[in-house]
Design a protein that fits this description.
There is one protein chain. It is built from two helices and eleven strands. With about 190 residues, the chain is an alpha+beta fold. It has one domain. Strands 1-2-3-4-8-9-10-11 form an eight-stranded antiparallel β-barrel. A two-stranded antiparallel sheet has the order 5-6. α1 packs antiparallel against α2. It is elongated and about 80 Å long.
Length: about 190
Amino acid sequence: MMKRAILTLAALALLLGGVGQAKAGQLFDFTFTGSGVSVSGVLDATSNGDGTFTATSGSATVSEPNYTGPITLIPGSGNTPGNFFFYDNQLLPGQDPLITGGGLAFTTTASDPSQVNIFSNGPASPYTFADNFGVPVNPTPNDFGTAFIANGEFTLTAVPEPATLTLLGFGIAGLAGYGLRRRKQAVAA
């Protein structure tokens, strides 16, 4: 009976492990906190195969003097619409810095093309938040026509996928069951 239960749990673990593998991306929670600004959100990213990731989609909530509300990741890399910021959406978990100098680019809505750029200033340096809320369209690339800019702290945390948490739960349940069985056998002897 115990052997059958172990085989069933192993088959279920393999099945759930496969479900986790089928997911294309890795989710990351992130925050930026600086003088007069706070941002928190989630990024979906694909692995670059070297421990780094490219953010492909994401959303956040920003609160700063010129705007409070939702923002959405601009996918890809290059210059943002209107040439306000250069970005590359690269994530470097476990490294210093956690994002590149190009950083992450976000936009508000299609009717309001205002943008946000959060980027690194290099190792052991503060990160920078810049936006262009209310600034006229800038025809010169990387001219940084910004309405608000602040240095601060950036955090990036990988979110465990549900299949991983399920496997962990089965492992803990299996160890608990094994411990109970050994205890019953010891009492019976």
